[in-house]
Design brief:
This protein is of the alpha/beta class and 275 residues long. It has helices spanning 13-27, 45-53, 79-87, 98-112, 126-135, 154-164, 180-193, 208-219, 254-273; strands at residues 2-5, 35-38, 57-59, 69-72, 91-94, 116-120, 143-148, 171-174, 198-202, 223-227, 243-248.
Length: 275
């Protein structure tokens, strides 16, 4: 069995930046034992676990925090939360991905121009929650602008836009705010699907961009498995398969991908010996 690995893997720019910010903050003496992450700084349990061992405390709210540094995750945070951190005089460390920040700026401009803003994305995702906070009360306008969660799939976004085209509007502005890294990984996944009859998608189960890759594979009808670590792989996944494709999400470290590839090779060798 052949193994094809996506040519682009490892951390995206925003994830790498957020991890570097967290590690730098943890090293500062004034933040020793008082460095907090508001939610998972990135959506990968293994990486977050490693940061926790170094002293990062993951919290869901700041009500009980009296001092220290609070890191905003790579996905951003709502205006209300940021103002609350400032009011409590906590050190605000913003690790929001610059590409997500750019979407924030687009939303602010559109809102000031009186557009009704439509966001295509996962309503419960922290990135979308932050955007909804910026949008505030929906403008009663016939001018519509549509944006996307940065990790949304292109197919979903186009379907959403197509639906809006059927609505009554005087003006419709469309912004492609899917980040380049996300689009690139999705394109590479589609390329591998042309050759492979089983796909392994590596990344956090709570990672939106990783789940998108898995959905792309499932939609093509190819046997696909979304795993976080090599320990989840089973020999039966690769029986009677000619080619296994391996892709990874933007918050998946290269080391995990290498372990997964190694395990697939071991399982394949074990299967051959058992014949």
């Amino acid at each position: 069995m052949r193994i094809k690995i996506a040519s682009h893997s490892g951390f995206c720019f925003g994830v790498k930046r957020a991890i570097n910010i967290a590690e730098r903050t943890l090293k500062e003496s004034r933040h020793t034992n008082n460095t907090y992450s508001l939610g998972s700084i990135i959506h990968n349990p293994q990486v977050v676990g490693d940061l926790s061992k170094k002293g990062l405390k993951v919290i869901s709210g700041i009500n009980n925090i009296k001092k220290g540094a609070v890191i905003i995750s790579s996905h951003g945070a709502t205006i209300e939360v940021i103002e609350k951190i400032k009011k409590k005089r906590l050190d605000l460390i913003d690790a929001t991905c610059p590409f997500v920040k750019n979407v924030h700026n687009i939303v602010r401009d559109l809102k000031s121009s009186g557009y009704r803003i439509v966001i295509i994305g996962d309503k419960k995702h922290p990135e979308v929650k932050a955007l909804l906070g910026l949008v505030g009360r929906e403008a009663k306008s016939n001018k519509i602008a549509v944006i996307s969660q940065t990790t949304q799939s292109k197919d979903n976004y186009l379907k959403g836009v197509a639906g809006l085209l059927k609505k009554d509007f005087s003006e419709l502005r469309i912004f492609n705010t899917i980040c380049n890294d996300t689009a690139h990984r999705q394109a590479l996944t589609r390329d591998l699907l042309k050759e492979c009859d089983v796909m392994v998608v590596v990344g956090g189960k709570n990672s939106a961009n990783t789940r998108r890759l898995w959905h792309i594979c499932k939609e093509r009808g190819v046997d696909s498995y979304h795993i976080e670590t090599d320990a989840e792989l089973k020999e039966e996944y690769f029986r009677r398969k000619g080619c296994a494709g391996v892709v990874s999400g933007a918050s998946t470290p290269d080391e995990l991908v290498k372990k997964v590839v190694k395990k697939i090779k071991e399982l394949n060798l074990k299967r051959k010996r058992g014949k």
